[in-house]
Predict the structure.
Amino acid sequence: MLVKLFCEYVVNSRNSWHMKEILTDWGVDRLHFNKLYKTVRKVFGDGVVLNNDRINIDNQVAKGSVDFFPFDNSIAMLRINVLFTETINFKRLCETRSKYYACLFSLKEGVDLHVFDGGDESEMNHLGLSANHSVLYFSSDVQTLFRVVPNEQAKIVILVFASDTLDRILRYAKNIKFSNFRDGQSVKGYTSMPVEMVERLTHVFEFASPDHILPLYLLGAVYQLLAILFLQIEADRQLLVQSTGVAEVARMVQIRNLLVADFSVDCPLLEDMARKAQMSVTKFKTLFKKLFKLSYYQYYQRYRLLAARQAIALGKSVTETAYDFSFNSISNFSVAFKKMFKVSPSEIEAQAHANAIAFG
């Protein structure tokens, strides 16, 4: 089976400091885990060693390990247990029709699944999108996975499924309404971690056994985590319906997640999204504004600019950011940015540069 796991180290050449951005794509074989090792070694420098299916990292940037467990040609687990000393963004390369889906579980609040700051917290909490949520499930195309907060131990498990395996697993949960659409994209969402899931995930990191038994134990943990996740998703869906009075709310939240998944391309057409949600355009517009308080295109623009502001604050140049976030010119980007934030993007860039110098 094909798997792709690789990273890219992004260096802002205009500044003397480095912003680390790890670009990834998930899959299930050992060949590309080895590619991951080579790139991590390139990114983090000395102190990165591959030992069978474990990457050990021990240097000034990070200390810890990344373990890879390929169970067969359809399921794999990455277990990340690393203390990072710097902020690092983890992003996934988007593919319209990916062959692989991922579930990401984080034990630590130091991992932010939303990455861009400044969103409407009341909206986030109301619709199950709070930044302190610790599970991102069945993602095939979300661009931003998570951001690691410095000096906190990141404990993250990523489960990777081939798409046909996900179909098979979902059949076991046939009474749970994940979504009414899956058109080459993910049944995607965020959720919090119930006590049972925390306990199971903790065991994944702490369970001690002979090497030949550990994969069997972890494979069992995969299905236990999924069973708990299915129950949590259904509980979330019922609460959303009760709190909003909108029967299609879970579908609309998934549409929202698709909308903000990848800002490097133009905004998806409203008509296409309405079709995915199996609604008329009129109903889609009405429900979207009712739930998210902005029109479809206003919402996209707001969160695109929030993400762009954070990219600049983390070291990207205004020019690079404008094109990375699919603005057709730097001037258009600057006008939209200043209209929303009351400061120009170049002022944010200058402040980021000054902060980098001040903190060494």
